[in-house]
Amino acid sequence: MEFDLHMALVILAAAAATFATRIGGYILITRMKSIPPRMEAALNAVPAAVLTTLVAPAFFIGGWESKLALIVALFVGLRVSHSWMLVAAWIVVMIWRHAGV
Question: Which UniProt keywords apply (predicted)?
Answer without folding.
Answer: Membrane, Transmembrane, Transmembrane helix
